[in-house]
Design a protein that fits this description.
By secondary structure, the protein is α/β, with parallel strands linked by helices. Helix content is about 35%, strand content about 15%. It contains nine helices and six strands; from the N terminus they run H-H-H-H-H-E-H-E-H-E-E-E-H-E-H. Helix 7 links the parallel strand 2 and strand 3. It is globular and about 45 Å long.
Length: about 220
């Protein structure tokens, strides 16, 4: 692991660890600054097969007492990914209590390693994550976008089915060398029905980076 706490703080222009989640959340809504930050992180660490923020988040931000935030070790994540490798899923994987993305990143890496660079397209796979923690969401979104994944992230309670936002992470060019765009889904009845959301806990965020949604999303936001 090459990325250190001081690297994270420097790139995000913060001095203390408590500033990181809010700074990262603000960053991901600015496409130009976000992608420049992605480039800087990749200059330090190019290996995308694991969650860079796993240990940093647990050491600095995890709420072990109230939210039991002890994330799945990388070794266990690899075993789980191998177990479900041959399951019929139509290319879709769901991770409830997604944390900063350790499990879903391991599954994504296993999925792409089935292919060569000449026959792999991000659109072959779709990932769905649900996460409760406000502090965790920025790290999760960051991890999905820098890897060029296609995914939906529900920020809410997986049991009570209440949510603050639903984020749609889209690899617009279907190119594994490109970063994903960020779209926030409207708080419409169709979106609530599609994702089984029974109550919205925050006002909707109006943020769309690409209106050319894939067919499987158009029917939800129409």
């Amino acid at each position: 692991m090459k990325i250190k706490a001081e690297d994270i703080h420097k790139i995000l222009c913060v001095k203390e660890s408590y500033e990181v989640p809010s700074a990262m959340y603000k960053l991901i809504f600015d496409k130009e600054k976000r992608e420049k930050a992605f480039d800087k992180f990749l200059e330090i660490e190019w290996n995308l097969s694991f969650d860079w923020f796993h240990h940093y988040f647990q050491d600095e931000h995890a709420d072990r007492q109230m939210k039991k935030q002890d994330f799945t070790p990388e070794s266990v994540a690899k075993i789980l990914s191998e177990i479900v490798r041959n399951e019929a899923s139509n290319g879709t994987t769901m991770d409830v209590a997604g944390g900063t993305g350790g499990l879903i990143i391991t599954k994504w890496n296993d999925d792409r390693m089935k292919h060569t660079p000449f026959d792999y397209y991000p659109s072959m796979y779709f990932y769905k994550c649900e996460e409760l923690s406000d502090l965790t969401i920025p790290f999760l979104l960051f991890n999905l976008m820098i890897r060029g994944m296609n995914a939906v992230v529900i920020h809410g309670d997986a049991l009570e089915r209440t949510a603050k936002q639903v984020y749609f992470i889209q690899n617009t060019f279907d190119d594994y060398m490109k970063y994903s765009d960020l779209n926030v889904m409207p708080h419409s009845d169709l979106v609530a029905k599609e994702f089984d959301i029974r109550e919205w806990l925050e006002p909707a965020i109006d943020h769309i980076e690409n209106k050319e949604y894939p067919d499987y999303v158009k029917q939800v936001i129409a």
